[in-house]
UniProtKB/TrEMBL annotation:
GO terms for cellular component: cytosol. Pfam families: Aminotran_3. PROSITE patterns: AA_TRANSFER_CLASS_3. GO terms for molecular function: pyridoxal phosphate binding; transaminase activity. InterPro entries: Aminotrans_3, Aminotrans_3_PPA_site, PyrdxlP-dep_Trfase, PyrdxlP-dep_Trfase_major, PyrdxlP-dep_Trfase_small. CDD domains: OAT_like (cd00610). It comes from Microvirga vignae. This is Aminotransferase. Keywords: Aminotransferase, Pyridoxal phosphate, Transferase. Its cofactor is pyridoxal 5'-phosphate.
Amino acid sequence: MNEPITSKGQVYDTSSIRALDLSHHMHPFADQQELVSEGGVRVITRGEGVYLWDSEGERLLDGMGGLWCINIGYGRKELVEAAARQMEELPYYNTFFKTTTPVAAELAAEIASISPNGLDRIFYSNSGSEANDTNIRLARLYWTRLGRPERKAIISRHNAYHGSSIGSGSLTGFDDMHDIAGVPIADVHHAPAPFWWRDGRGQTVEEHCAWALDRLEETILHVGPENVAAFIGEPVQGAGGVLTPPPGYWQGVQEICRRYDILLICDEVICGFGRTGQWFGSQTYAIEPDIITTAKGLSSGYLPISASVFGGRVASVLMDKPGRMNHGYTCSGHPVAAAVALENIRILKRERIVERVGEEIGPYFQARLRELLDHPLVGEVRGVGLMAAVELTRDKEGRTPIEPVSSLATSVRNLCFKTGLTTRAVRDSLVFSPPLVISKDEIDWLVKRLRDNLNQFVG
Ligand code: PXG
């Protein structure tokens, strides 16, 4: 039995929390019996800045920013106050039947003010998954209204993560998420995405990029361009292992989409709100999307809220002409979540957080992590802004994958977790996405802790 521990005045009994959790709480993406055999999971109780504390008082530097989402850091009183004010005034009202709330309207205008490519219309959901389900509907409805209902196929990519609902999980490009009947849904197709380290052996980066673009076009031709509604892609594939696009890749994708008149959806759930050093990954890679998906950093993860943002071409058919879209969620445009998101964006603007990522702290983070390339177990460091992957290898030249896959990365991740640093193992890489407010000293600590932990596995 663990001793009860005090964290900011609160007493936690770790073992009883673990016992309750194991008995009643089924965790996402987890094998519950594995959790049972390990005696339960870590209990996280508090956050401040880039740090988390657990129920036993241990501190962790949150190298993952929650789950790629705590952009402005933990413990922001302004967000707490915005939520409390809104809760007192109006905790809930819907936006379905000819009503709105001041914050839902104001937030829509605020998102429009920062969105790429002049996108200025917003449909609210509560998660990235729901927003991508919405996007499937938006894209198909767009073509239906134009008298082309056969244009319903969505082209996604391998290693894409677009959510885990039945619709968005179908867009996701991991085979292990398609291991139940009926998923992926019909008319979703996956093309390879560039992943030079693993799939481009024997090719230059340029050759690999051209290969990936050819495969994309081939997929579209196989489906028949006249049947394709949209292509969806993350500017940088996040959960797939921070797969940064090679130079020219997105220009190539856009040319293909234009050639076949296919809508371009950029999933900005991770890349949005400053992660890549600009407001959106679309701006970092000069992409002109028709629709973007936003979630996570929209509220810095403080409350669930997401938005599909679209403009000119799609709006002219779906908003500027008569006709209704039969779609929406009870909490679409939830006033408390909207109030928090509005304050979050204002903080990002007021404190020039996005500019700091682009000009100063992002380049510093990338440069410091790249120093690890001299380490015998580090094959590649990928990333942009404050998202990065450190690819582990035991064969720098031949790049043969580690057997079994993920074994080394998982061991290093576990040691990091034990020694005060959160990171995530994705196949053979460790991924990072710290809060955008991280300092240089904190980055120095992160890189040193990672190097020290990697040293334990040399030989
Ligand atoms: N799009 C992208 C690009 C994402 O990264 C979603 C959509 C879905 O969002 P919701 O809010 O429905 O989860 C995501 C979510 C991981 C991990 O292990 C990543 C996500 C979610 C859960 C785990 O890296 N990204």
